[in-house]
Amino acid sequence: MPSNYQEPALKKEIARHLKIKEFHYHILKKSLDARNKKNIFWLLRLAVFSPELPFKLPPLEKKLEIPYQKRKKRVVVVGMGPSGFFAALVLAQAGFEVKVLEQGKAVEERKNDIENFEKTGILNPLSNYSFGEGGAGAFSDGKLTSRNKHISLEREYILKTFIEAGAPPEIGYLAYPHIGSDILYQILPVLRKQLSLYQAEILFQSKVIGFEKKNNRVDSIQTDSKEWEADDFIFAPGHSSYHTYRLFLSHKIPFIVKPSAIGVRVEHPQKTVNYSQWGKESLPGVKAAEYKLTFQEKNSLPVYSFCMCPGGKIIPAASETGQSIVNGVSNYQRNSSFANSAVVAGFHLKDILNQDIKSVDALLWLIGLENKFFDLKKSYEIPAAKIEDFIKKKVSSALLASSYPFSLFPYDFDQLFPEVIAESLRKSMIQFSSKIRGFEKGQMMGLESKTSSLIQAVRNSEGLIEGFENLYITGEGSGFSGGIISSAADGIKAAIGIIQKYS
């Protein structure tokens, strides 16, 4: 169908193609085919029902089964990002007594704290772009894609839950669905209410500071105001919660260092990306063009674009004082004049340092890098460079306009990254400039260090930690997921594992 088709045209095409008059339909899958810039169109897969067609009973769709548990077991869930929320929801629906402890604030208060941060430069370390109801995903592009093919039932359950809470129905069939930060903000209170309807108790501003362990079980956890006992504990902290990592490591919870990626955010006028991808500055019926780039070359690290935010903005994503990192967000309409994306180099820290390294030392290395970017100005101003200057190993004499809420300043990124990372980024930028017209005319800035966790919990597929009977670590903080869908699915798997344990 044409990019700007309307429903009457689609109905007419269905009737013409199938030679029927009475019918109804729903869209199963919808994706944009832009391979030929002169003929860009939507490709749709439909289910059509009509008395004029041979009747065929469609196969029953498999759904996530949540068996009800009559024994009132108690579970404490720590963290109310996607993983923690969906773990809590499934357990509550199964009849468990669930308490959710979130160190941050409800999303309404959290938004106020973020706005104050961008006005004053004063960070609230417990209520920011990373911490609070909804987790880091609450203020992001709200992408709902996942490369994991083994979570189809969980994915359908997650999308259905979002749609029932007010998300656009299109997320159920778009090839690359996204909600947008503005709509996520609207539906989070609805999701919170849904959790409460199942008798789950939610306690905001409840930071876990310790726990009691006996043999291979956790007996209780402590917040700054109370001690909580339970039969099982799920930690879903997100990978920005260094305090929680320190707590884990101090209690000898096993972690390993895993491959990760760091780099920068690049930013371009959205019209530049549109023209490169579509051959025109706008395309009726489509919000904004995207790209996905990869680079692989001998003697270089692999480099790729990540979390591309068309029509979005770059944000200060620090969660601790003295830390400088960036991320990207966009609203549902993706109508900002800027496009941004992470461009990151994949690496294993032992290869960078030429030695084996423990989890605690890997965290210290990353914290040191994030502090290094902050210490340049002792503020949330960030270093930046024109991409074409970085390619030429020049420090930019002047910078471009940006969506970032604080100031930018020119800097030499070769002085900030290990040499192999800086050189790999440089080579990738050269190649990307041949793939995206005008890419070299963009700007790179800040430190992107949160593509995935640098360390990974030693656990089974349901999140149960090795050596423990009742401690689960899930989501991005576990090192086993990245993004809203895979993190939520990871929490669901932990919940199902606990339900089955008592069945």
Salient structural properties:
single chain, 503 residues, alpha/beta, FAD/NAD(P)-binding domain, 7-stranded mixed sheet, 5-stranded parallel sheet, 12 helices, 29% helix
Q: How would you describe this protein?
A:
α2 (82-93) runs parallel beside α12 (484-501). This protein folds into three domains: 7-49, no CATH class; 74-256 and 455-501, FAD/NAD(P)-binding domain, CATH 3.50.50; 259-448, no CATH class. It has 503 residues and is an alpha/beta fold. The strands form six sheets. A seven-stranded mixed β-sheet has the order 12-13-16-11-19-17-18. A five-stranded parallel β-sheet has the order 5-4-3-9-21, covered by helices on one side. Strands 6-7-8 form a three-stranded antiparallel β-sheet, covered by helices on one side. The protein is built from twelve helices and 21 strands.
